[in-house]
Each structure stands twice: as C-alpha cells, then as structure tokens.
Design goal:
Layout lengths: L3 H13 L6 H4 L11 H10 L8 H16 L22 E3 L6 E3 L7 H13 L12 H11 L9 H6 L11 H17 L5 E9 L2 H5 L4 H26 L4 E3 L6 H9 L31 E7 L3 H30 L9 H10 L4 E8 L13 H7 L14 H6 L3 E3 L2 E4 L7 H17 L33 H6 L7 H5 L13 H21 L10 H20 L4 H14 L9 H10 L5 H19 L4 H14 L6 E9 L2 H6 L17 H7 L5 H8 L6 H26 L3 E6 L2 E7 L3 H13 L13 H5 L10 E4 L2 E4 L2 E4 L7 E9 L4 H17 L4 E7 L5 E7 L1
Parallel strand pairs: 15-16
Antiparallel strand pairs: 1-2, 3-5, 3-6, 4-5, 7-8, 9-11, 9-15, 10-11, 12-13, 13-14, 16-17
Helix pairs in contact: 1-4, 1-6, 1-8, 3-5, 4-8, 10-12, 10-19, 12-13, 12-19, 20-23, 21-23, 21-24, 23-24, 28-29
C-alpha cells in the first residue's frame, strides 16, 4: 500500500469517488447529504471498511479544491449558503454551453434520488475489477471508471448523464471533467516528492510539409494518420505512467486507439468494449482509421518528473518510427529477393533520413511558481518568469482586470463569496506554458544532411533507398532498362505495396506508401476483423456524379425499350471481367440496397470506372478507351463527368480559443454568463463594488474549457465529419484531425458538404445571415436529407444515432478552401491550389470559403466569399 505505483492508482479511485456522479440530481434532496450515499458505498466497495489509505484523504481534498478553483473560482465552503445560491437542479435544471454562454432549460426532472443513487452505485460497482483473490485491482478499476463512468447507467439517462454539471450554480462543465482534473492533480500530489504538479506541453512535427508530400489520395491519408499514430505513441507514455486522465488536451475518452490500449495492454475487461464501433466496422470507416489526434498535447504531471516524461516521449516516438520503418524495409527487401543484412546501404540511408524525426518540442511549468509553499497563492515568481516572454507593455493575465479581482477574497452578506487558491492561477500557468513552448519551438537545431544521388519520387529531397549505391547515379531511363538482378529495389517491387512503376522512394515515401497495408494488418490482428481499406480514385469520384444520376432514372429508362436494354447489356458484358471499382461509400451502399449482384446496372456502376482506368493505362493509341467512353456516354445518357473536388476546412483562431484571446476578441464569457439564472437573479440587487466588477469580468481559461474544446473537436472529427462526407454526401474523408478536415467529393456534392461541415463544426444550424441560404430543404434538397432522421444540429450540439455531442458553438467559425480539378491533373498541383484557397479564405477575415476551378484546357478561376 505504500508503493507509489499502487498508491497513485488508489489516489485516482479516491478522487473519482469523492463526489457522486449524480450529485447535481440529488443535491439538497437526501437527508444524509450527497457524500453519504454513493460515495460512502463506493469507497467501502473499493477500499474496504477501513476507508481511504492513510494520507490520501487530505491530498484528494486539496486536489478537489484546486480543480474547483481552476474551473469555477467561487463559493468556498462557509457556515451557510443563502437561499438564492442553493440551486435545486431537479426543479430548475439548466445547462450552459461553455463557449457561448447559451442556457438550455431542461424542464423539471421527476427522478427519485434513492433510485438515482442505486443506479449510480450499480453502474460503478460493475466497473470494479478484481484479481483472482477478489482484491480490487486499483489500476484497472481506475481506468475503467475513467473510460466508462460517463457511459449511461440506465435507459433515459444517457444524454443527461453525459452533461451532468459539476456544480449546479455554474452548470457549464460536467462532473466528469471535474473528476478527471481532481484525479490528475491527486496523482501528481502522490507521485511528486514536493506534492507539486506541473503543466507539460509536447508538440510533434513537421505537419503540413509531411502531409503535403503526396502523389495519391492514399498518401494524404497515410501522412496524416502516421502523424496521429506518432502522437498516440507519445500520449501512451503519459497514459502508462499517470493514466489518461492526466491528459487535458486532447481528450482521450472514446478515442479508438486509446480504447484498444485500455483493452489489450492496460487490462481493462474486454467485455466492457463490446458495443464499441471499432470492434465491428470492416471498412476504413472504422474509428481506428481516423487521424483524430492532433500534434500537440497538454498534461498534468508531477513536477519532478516533467523533464523525464518529455524525454521518454521523445525517445518512444522516434524509436517507434525507426522500428516501423525497419520492418517495412525488411518486407520490401524480402519481396524483392534481395539478401543481406545491415551491411546493405539502405539501412544507413534509413537511419540518416529518419534522424531527428519526428521533431519533438516540449515545455513544462511547475505549480510551485504559483504557490512556493504549496498552500498560499503567491504570483510573484510567475510574474518574474513571464516578464522576459511578454511584449513591452503587456503585463499578461497578472496585470489584467480579472486577476485584480481574483487575487483577494470577496464577501457578500457577510459570507465569503470567493477565496483564491493555487488552482485559481491555472490561466497564468497556461499562459506561461504557451509562451515557453513557442520559444522552445522557435529554437530548432539543424544538422547538415548530405544526399548525393537521385532524389525520391515523392518529396524530392531525400535519396531513394537502395541496396546498391551505384544505382543512385542511374537516370530514370537507365533504371528502366535494367533486367533481372540488376534492377533497382523499387523496380523489383513495383505493382506491390502501392508502389507504382518507376517510383523510387526515400524513408518518408516508404513509410507513407506501406503504412496503409501495415496498419490494416495490425488492426486485423488486434480486433479479429479484416478491415478493408478503400481508396477512391479521382476518376471514380468524378464519375460518381454521372453514375448516381443515371441510376436514379435507369430502372425505368434503360429497361423501357429494346434498344436501350440491348445497349445496357452490351456495356455490362464489356466491363463484367474488370475488377470492381472502389466507389464512394454512399453510392456503394445505394447499389447494394437497390440492385442484386449480377444486375447489369450494378455491374456497370461497379466495374466501368476500373475498366476505363485500365484502358487509359494500357491502350497505346487511345482508340479502345475512346470507344468505351463513347459507349458509356450513350448508355449513361450524358458525357461522363471528369471533374472532382478536394475540400480543406480548418477551424479559425484555435490558438485564441485555447488561450482565451484578448479582452476584445469575444472568445471568453463574462462570469455572470456561466452562472445558473437563479444565482444571477439572486445577485441582481447586489451588483456593486468588486462583486459587480466580478460578474462583468471575462472568465479566464480553465482546464474544463480545454477539455471541452478537445471533446468537441474529437466528436466532430471522428464521427460527424465522416457522416457528412460519406453518408450525407458521396465523398471520401481523407483525414479529420480535430478542427482540420480534408475530403474528396463529386462536384455536385461540394456546396452541401461545405455548408454542412461548417454547420456541424459549430453545432449550429442556419442562423442570422446564413438562415436565408441554408434552410435545410433549400440547401440539401430532398435527396440530401438524413433519411434516417438520426442526425440533428442545434444549440451548439449534435445528435447522431442517439449519441449527444457538445460542439464548439455559434461563436466558433471555420474557413475552407476547395478546388475543382480534372481527374488527371497532377495531385501535387491540386494540393498547392487547395492550400492556397484555404489561405485566401483566412485572409478574407476568416469565416469564409474560397473556390478554385482548375480547367483542363488551362486557366484558373477563383471565387472567395464569406459564409
């Protein structure tokens, strides 16, 4: 019990049981008080009759106080509370959106407190994990509480249970974010010799340059997914040592990779994951294939371990990349029948090219700067630390109006209304962390890299990997003329692993090209599902427009006359031996639902794109390709569409959302906007002096705000963006990482996809100036409505298939760029235009979009508009 590795998991359980999850629903409704019911029963079940291990109770109490002050600096415990400050949530349940201040009155809740306590206790008791001797396994139980505690304990409670407030007077953050932060702080108190936590920020790179090196849509996905997977390797270091609750940003609860780790490596019982999507989906719509983790993390760690954890993260991610690349290179050499070991030059090339990848930048700020003695608040050390990093004349948070109010006690009616504690200084600790991290990132050491031979086909910066250095001096023609064992490594494996004929790749190109197959095999081994990853070609995406229109009218028209039926059967016979094309998910689903296998309509839709692609590659003079194209146009009733669209959307001013911006930006709310209406009414006649200024002051950033933003971005990226692109539209989501989305779409779906993604990002539907153009029926038309009725947007929230998502809200905006290009246009050029379009949208003042039309015959047309 004295072992710290055990003790800090017990501290987590103590923190997780210090307040009942149902606190808001039973407060002031039970004779025993909220700490006598579920709390007492759960602590007996977890710790036995003896209660909390010696020394844990004061640490958990301090963690609770610091967490409360960081998220809602008000109302310390005093002798009594006035009536206006005693909010009965069952009678007047109100939830407040943390980023907009919008209130949602739920209506009186007829819920029996005794039954709620029983349901809550049963829910958590099922999550207690015991060893073979019946002893509670503290580590696995704490992880199960964190992951599944917010899961609904009973029908009818699901959406409410997810958003139950930590404090009914300030109902803008949930009990779950409070328990997470309390647990993280308690862990650091136990693990640190001085009982001092720290904030740690770690970022990985490069991002845009790495993703942009692509010759196919598969490369785009692979680059973004690799970076997300690298970020997870870094996050795992913290999860293994301190638990996932220590990570404030990104929020990991419900992230598929985190779930897989919990089940297979952390030992959380597998039966708890039985309803998770990632166990069932057999396409790359599986959440494991989502590039959903950003390249930056912020965590609460023991101050004494911050540097060691950062170095462990750096070592882990670089080792993981080298090991993954080594496995891929061995696979290539084996497939090419090239023998030899580490003496082959490709191994030295691999080490050289991957040296220092990924870039890892970190910074840490200890809470000791806010409380040197661990108790009293003392901002002087923080002020001194910030001074060299602030612009001249900028005193930062500590010289602002908010700290002038929060730095001392406030009283009302003779009672303490507010008293600062070290948790109150979270905003300035985060401000210092951001500035130190930016300074660390600006100092980037560069080692000279020498590359002598021909460069690789993807990035054009590295030599391509070779087993014979003499091959590096061969021109492309000379390489092609080589025969047998004289061929290059890449000629020997062309046609496999996604390697195209003539391509020669360096370390980064190899990682991208082999990662899709490698990851699919890893997923198959982990979950027992052979996940089929589908890559829609640009040509097929363009054809999707014509195919869908044709299929809508074909059953009646094509079978309506002998001549049309004959042309249909003739075309079906010409393409039936072709490989089935990978169609956009919605179009493929429509085909399966409407047409039996072997139906000529289905045969043509599934195989015509592949046959056209094959003829274009193999037909030297183009006559066979032109003939099939003409016949297809005759059957389709129109010339097949040859243009497709790429879309790139990015949330606006994400840094300002996380930092709170300045006082004029509108990224923060007044304190009064976060309070329950009853409390605001109670304070109405008392708005004088410091209290009045307090109510009107802008709230600083908080851990709950950061966790809320991260959870909103996770929900949008993992679930909503894919639903919009691949279910409501005929598109293919290439990646979605937080606020950043890239998708490929047929041209006819582009306006709807742009508008819906923008609306889903905020969780708002059609307000103000957007309303006239974005009415649901006018915008989407009968063919675009969510036919199941399972997708709803409004009030900063979304409901998809019964699950509630809290999103960024009406104040959050996003900008988007889109390019419409011919399917044969070089992807690298299209990507350059796409990023330029997004930059133009940002340059308009943000909350805008920019279209670029790249014409086949030359010339570019652009259109920039606000939403």
């Amino acid at each position: 019990m004295d072992d710290k590795d055990t003790l800090h998991w017990l501290a987590k359980l103590a923190a997780w049981t210090h307040d009942p999850a149902e606190k808001a629903l039973i407060l002031m409704r039970t004779a025993e008080g909220h700490e006598r019911g579920t709390v007492a029963k759960l602590q007996r079940a977890v710790f036995g009759k003896a209660g909390l291990p010696e020394g844990l109770a004061p640490l958990v109490r301090r963690a609770d106080h610091w967490a409360s002050a960081a998220d809602r600096p008000q109302f310390p415990q005093d002798q009594r509370y006035p009536a206006w400050a005693q909010v009965r949530f069952d009678r007047d349940p109100v939830l407040t959106h943390p980023l907009t201040g919008e209130d949602y009155a739920l209506g009186r809740l007829e819920l029996d407190p005794a039954q709620l306590e029983a349901v809550s206790f049963d829910h958590f008791e099922r999550l207690i994990v015991r060893d073979a001797n019946g002893t509670v396994d503290a580590r696995r139980t704490a992880l199960a509480f964190w992951r599944f505690g917010p899961g609904t304990p009973a029908p009818g409670l699901d959406k409410l249970w997810q958003l139950l407030p930590a404090d009914t007077r300030v109902p803008d953050h949930s009990i779950w974010s409070h328990l997470d932060l309390s647990s993280a702080l308690a862990t650091s108190f136990v693990c640190d010799p001085e009982q001092t936590p720290a904030l740690l920020a770690v970022s990985f790179g490069p991002v845009q340059d790495f993703i942009a090196q692509a010759r196919s849509t598969s490369d785009l996905w692979a680059g973004s997914h690799l970076l997300s997977r690298i970020a997870w390797e870094g996050l795992k270091v913290i999860c293994e040592r301190l638990g996932p609750d220590a990570v404030l940003f990104p929020q990991l609860r419900g992230v598929a990779l985190a779930d897989l780790w919990l089940r297979d490596q952390a030992g959380v019982p597998a039966e708890l994951f039985e309803r998770c999507d990632w166990l069932e989906r057999a396409t790359d719509a599986n959440p494991l294939f989502a590039a959903a983790l950003p390249n930056k993390l912020v965590a609460v760690v023991p101050a004494a371990e911050a540097a060691a954890i950062a170095h462990a993260i750096e070592h882990r991610v670089r080792t993981w990349v080298r090991d993954a690349a080594g496995d891929m290179l061995r696979e290539l050499l084996k497939a090419a029948n090239i023998r030899g070991g580490r003496e082959l030059p490709c191994w030295d090339q691999l080490e050289r090219q991957l040296a220092g990848f990924p870039e890892v930048h970190w910074a840490a700020v200890s809470w000791s700067l806010a409380t040197p003695d661990g108790k009293a608040v003392e901002p002087a050390p923080l002020r001194a630390a910030l001074a060299p990093l602030l612009p001249a004349g900028d005193g930062g948070f500590l010289d602002g109006e908010v700290w002038a109010l929060l730095s001392h006690e406030l009283e009302i009616d003779g009672l303490r209304f507010y008293r600062p504690n070290p948790g109150t200084l979270y905003p300035v600790l985060y401000e210092l962390l951001e500035r130190v991290a930016a300074a660390a990132k600006s100092v980037r050491p560069f080692a000279r890299i020498e590359e002598h031979g021909y460069r690789d086909s993807l990035g054009g910066e590295q030599e391509w990997l070779t087993h014979d250095l003499a091959h590096l001096d061969l021109t492309p023609r000379q390489r092609k003329e080589r025969k047998g064992d004289d061929r290059t490594l890449w000629h020997r494996v062309a046609g496999r692993f996604g390697i195209r004929d003539g391509e020669h790749l360096g370390a980064f190109g190899m990682l991208k090209r082999l990662w899709p197959g490698t990851f699919a095999r890893q997923v198959a081994e982990a979950i027992g599902v052979d996940v089929r990853r589908y890559v829609v070609s640009t040509h097929t995406m363009a054809l999707a427009v014509s195919l869908e229109r044709w299929l809508e009218r074909a059953p009646s028209e094509a079978r309506g006359s002998v001549g049309q039926a004959e042309r249909l059967l003739e075309l079906a016979a010409k393409v039936e031996d072709a490989e089935p094309a990978v169609l956009p998910a919605r179009l493929a689903a429509d085909l399966r639902d409407r047409f039996r296998p072997g139906d000529p309509l289905r045969t043509i839709a599934e195989r015509l794109p592949s046959r056209l692609d094959a003829l274009r590659e193999l037909d030297d003079d183009g006559t066979a390709f032109a003939a099939l194209q003409a016949q297809a146009a005759s059957v389709l009733g129109e010339r097949a569409e040859t243009y497709y669209a790429l879309l790139l959307m990015d949330g606006d001013r994400m840094g300002a959302w996380l930092s709170g911006g300045d006082e004029t930006d509108g990224y923060r709310l007044r304190f009064r906007d976060s309070w329950h209406p009853q409390v605001v009414r109670g304070l109405a006649g008392r708005d004088r002096g410091d209290l009045g200024a307090y109510l009107e002051a802008l709230r600083p950033v908080s851990p709950a705000r950061h966790m809320g933003i991260s959870a909103a971005l996770n929900g949008f990226a993992i679930d909503l963006a894919r639903h919009v692109v691949e279910r409501l539209c005929k598109g293919k989501l290439l990646y979605a990482g937080g606020d950043d989305v890239m998708a490929m779409l047929p041209v006819d779906d582009l306006p709807a996809a742009l508008a819906l993604l923008r609306l889903a990002y905020s969780g708002e539907f059609a307000r103000d100036a957007v309303q006239a153009a974005a009415d649901w029926k006018l915008l989407l038309g009968e063919g675009w409505r969510d036919r199941s009725g399972s997708f709803l947007l409004g009030g900063g929230h979304a409901v998809l298939k019964g699950r509630l998502y809290r999103l960024m809200g009406a104040r959050a905006t996003a900008s988007a760029g889109a390019v419409i290009a011919h399917h044969q246009a070089p992807l690298a050029m299209v990507l350059r235009e796409l990023r330029a379009a997004e930059k133009r949208a940002k340059a308009r003042g943000r909350n805008a979009f920019s279209f670029t039309l790249v014409k086949r015959a030359g010339g570019i047309t652009r259109l920039d508009c606000p939403w």
